[in-house]
Amino acid sequence: MFCSSCGGSISNKNAPFCTNCGVKLNAQANENTPNVAPQSPPPSETSYRPSYAQQMLAAQMAARATAPGKNFLLVTGILIIVFSAFGILSNMAMFLTSGFWDDFLPTGNMSWSTYYGVAIVIGIYELIMGIMGVANRTKPRVAGLLMVLAIVAIIITVVWSIVSSIALDGMLAGLGIFGIFGIGFGLILPILYLVGASKNNQANRSSF
C-alpha cells in the first residue's frame, strides 16, 4: 500500500495516518473510492403476485384439465355424429325418390319431399352439434354455447315430431305409442349432451 500524498510505502493497511508524511489515510481512501449507487435488495419470492389475467388463465386451464362433463360430451357427441350422418344419407336417398312415394303413399298436408328435406336440414344441425361437442368437450368456456345447441335440438325434436305427425296423418311419426317412443328416444342424446354441457358450464362459472 502506498500513500497518495508522498508516495511512501505503508506496511500496515489499517494505519490511520501515513508514517512518512502524516496524512490521514482514511480520507484518501474515501476520496479514491468510486461512488456506487446503492442497490435495492432483490424482490422476495413471496412478494410476487400474478396479474388478474394470469390468474384467470390459470383458472381456465385448471377447469379445462378437469372438465367434469367431457365424457358426456364425447360419448353423446360421437353417437350424434354417427346417427345424424346416417340419417342425412338415408333421408337424401328418400328425398331423391320422394316423387315415387308421393304417388305410391300419398299423405295429408305435407309431401314426402318436404318431409325428407326438413329432416336433412335437422340432421345437418345435429351433425354440427355433435362435432362441436366433441371438439369442445374440454373447453368449459364454450359450454354455454353447447347448452344452447342442446336445448334447440330438444325443441326441434319435439316440435318436428308433432308437426310431421299431424301433417302426415299420423304416418311414420305418429303420436301413438310408437310416436311417443320415437320422441323419447330422440331426446335421450340431446338431454345427455345438455347434462355434459351443464357440468362444464358450472366448472367454468366456478373458475371466476
User: How far from one another are the termini?
Assistant: 68 Å
SSE arrangement, N to C = HHHHHHH
Radius of gyration: 40 Å
Molecular shape: rod-shaped
Counting DSSP E segments of at least 2 residues, the number of strands comes to: 0
Instruction: Count up the domains.
Output: 2
Percent strand equals: under 5%
Helix share, percent: 55-70%
Largest sheet: none
Structural class per helix/strand content?
mainly alpha
What's the rounded overall pLDDT mean?
78
Per DSSP, the total helix count is 7
User: What ranges have pLDDT less than 50 throughout 5 or more consecutive residues?
Assistant: 172-179
How would you explain this protein's 3D organization?
- With 208 residues, the chain is mainly alpha-helical.
- It folds into two domains: 1-33, no CATH class; 67-206.
- 65% of the residues lie in helices and 0% in strands.
- It starts with 24 loop residues before the first helix and ends with a helix.
